[in-house]
Amino acid sequence: MKRGIYPGSFDPVTNGHVDMIERAAKIVDHLEVGVLNNRAKNPLFSVDERVSMLKEITKDMPNVSVSSFDGLLVDYMEEIGASIIVRGLRAVTDFEYELQIAQTNHRVNPNIDTLFLTTNIQYSYLSSTMVKEFASYGGDISHFVPLQFIDRIYEKYNIKK
Ligand code: PNS
Hints:
Helix 2 (47-57) links the parallel strand 2 and strand 3 (64-69). By secondary structure, the protein is of the alpha/beta class. The N and C termini lie far apart (45 Å). The protein has helices spanning 15-24, 47-57, 73-80, 92-108, 128-136, 150-156; strands at 3-8, 30-36, 64-69, 84-89, 113-118. A 5-stranded parallel β-sheet has the order 3-2-1-4-5, sandwiched between helices. The structure holds 4'-phosphopantetheine (PNS). 4'-phosphopantetheine is lined by residues 7-9, 36, 72-73, 101, 104.
């Protein structure tokens, strides 16, 4: 049984994330979507809110579960018995950072490998940061995030649509 983890901040989850989850779930036997509880960042959504949005969007995917983790990814993977990290590569700008993380994680635990999926071309420009920037000015985010989350995102900026 190959258990993989798709880790990230997911603040908020985008259509690019959802596409990645759907595709990764076809490759590994079980996929854990791991939401990083990163206290250093100042997130728009709490960890609980992000976990709950991801649970909502993956509810019909039988081999996908969602949880949050603190601390090192490799430690959490050991705890849940996962050996594959799934990450998306959008453009060459992602590469250096992702390579460094993948190599560090593999050095720390040689049983852990990172699987890179190239993002679907229609989402190659998309990031949670851009969604937040757009939403904060009341811009149209309907192409970027699952429709049921649009109002929740605007609410964070006290924007009524
Ligand atoms: O969505 P993000 O913010 O790009 O995801 C980054 C993430 C969560 C994959 C990365 O920051 C991570 O794994 N953090 C957990 C702490 C850790 O293990 N750091 C060592 C990586 S070298």
